[in-house]
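$ fold --in a.seq
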Amino acid sequence: MWRRPVGLNMGRGTWSWIVPDGLWEIAKPLIPPSKVRPQGGGTQDTPDETLFAAIVYVLVSGCA
């Protein structure tokens, strides 16, 4: 059974297993804010951290 090495800080968020807090703190200011629709409605945005984790996953797994 695989175990995380002692002392390896993987963050605390939902996607912390693939996006450590340090990497997310670097990327967060680079993501533009969501636009508000003037007419309202629409679907709820997917959280930025979730989208970033998906991008990182594709890049590191080679499944692109």
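$ fold --in b.seq
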Amino acid sequence: MFNAVVVEDEKPILDLMKILISKNEYLNVIGEFTSSKEALSNISKLKPQVVFLDVEMPGMNGIELAREITKYNENIEVIFVTAYEKYAVEAFKVSAINYILKPITEDEINFTVARLLKKNVKAANKKKEKKYKVYCLGNLKLYEGSKNLEIKWPTAKTEELFSFLIYHKGEIINKWNLCETLWSSKDPNSAEHNLHNTIYRLKSTLKKFGINHVIQYEAKGYKINLNDFYCDAFEYENFVDNIVKINDENIEKYEKMITLYKGNLYGDKDYIWGLDWQEKLRNSFSDLIKTAYPYYMEQKNYNKAEEQLKRLLQINPFDEEAHELLQKVYYYMGDRLKLVNHYEQLRNILKRELNIDIKESTKKLHKECILSLEKRGKIL
């Protein structure tokens, strides 16, 4: 709900504006004035979030009033309502969120509220930005804002313990579960001793960077308090778990998630306890690329399709479906040289790393692509 003040020097129009504005469930009219000076003197008392201003008014006009209001509080949103288009440039110089031409309508009010809500969500998200950022996709990294803290973990187990706590997303982990997972070869007393020492090292390491009181003991277990932490793996997983059909509106988000995936969970660490999650995230990365592929092909954006498929093959060079899709991209690009070179690279990597031949469907596709290009005279 936005608290609003309305300023209009003609009383009948003011009354009509109040009626229309009050019909919107997100607006609450807390003040109405026919005088700019009277409105200005009451702004500090009423503390509105939104003001609807007529432009042409005697004495102080709406543009001047808006400047004074924003001097008092730049966060108050200004909407101009006028019969004249000529003031639009001046209006937007004071960062008006909308410029409505009279007669005012419910549709214009609704459109304005939609803008207010969108801007409010962005502001709220900005306020909620986490102080620390943990990047798990690829090598483990910890940032404060945009600054890489470049943490030097005192022991491999200290890093693994931190990674394990992140993996459990702030849940309490029973201390004996921690002992069994991280020191399975030790007897209970030795494992517990190692756990206490590693917890101490982890707390001390984080404290050096001003990160205090996040490793917490509770209900005979330990957890990490993630209130001040952003984690790339959490954002990525949330997106792939709620994936929607790709379109012009969400392609940017798809590409952001594809870029976010820098590699396997925790890089080359391959912690046994994290293999299931690692595999889930890696498979979903493949799905994202393959979901985006038809969209790029429909848009004839072959370069982007090539770029994304090559990223996938860097992560999993043995994905023959991805190799086949890349063959199709080169066919539609009409690039015989890339088509042939890529096919030979695939043949070599499969022979060298797995000692197997290219599967028949890939051979058939390659042959058809080459023959079709030759028939169409598209040899490059």
